[in-house]
TrEMBL record:
The keyword Zinc-finger does not apply. The lineage of its organism: Bacteria, Pseudomonadati, Pseudomonadota, Alphaproteobacteria, Futianiales. This is Small ribosomal subunit protein bS16. It comes from Futiania mangrovi. Keywords: Ribonucleoprotein, Ribosomal protein. GO terms for biological process: translation.
Amino acid sequence: MALKIRLSRGGAKKRPFYRIVVTDSRNPRDGRFIEKIGTYNPILPRESETRLVLDVEKAKEWMAKGATPTDRVARFLEDAGVVKAKTRSNPNKAKPGKKAEERAEMRRQREEEAAAAAAAPAEEAPAEEPAAEA
């Protein structure tokens, strides 16, 4: 039996609430589970103590029995110090999209034009000569 420690969704539409459960990986996401080991409420602010409630000892026990955490649960366990932090590298995620690159290019061109205009010698306006009185 392939055991997973994963999130099981509950709550209303657009108001998610998750249980952290140990289940057989073949069961549906919100289906039958073996044991509930915590809760996660993403609606609450990050500083809230009840945003993530996790029984670390039970998680360690299940992992010793062969349960593997999903990516999100693994991050929770990393923060709790149970699992060693996995190195993540996705350099393409930080790159700006096409539109942002176009805007940056336009901004750079405007700045170059403004710098060139400021550096060019200012043409002096011809001094007004006093009209000769006849």
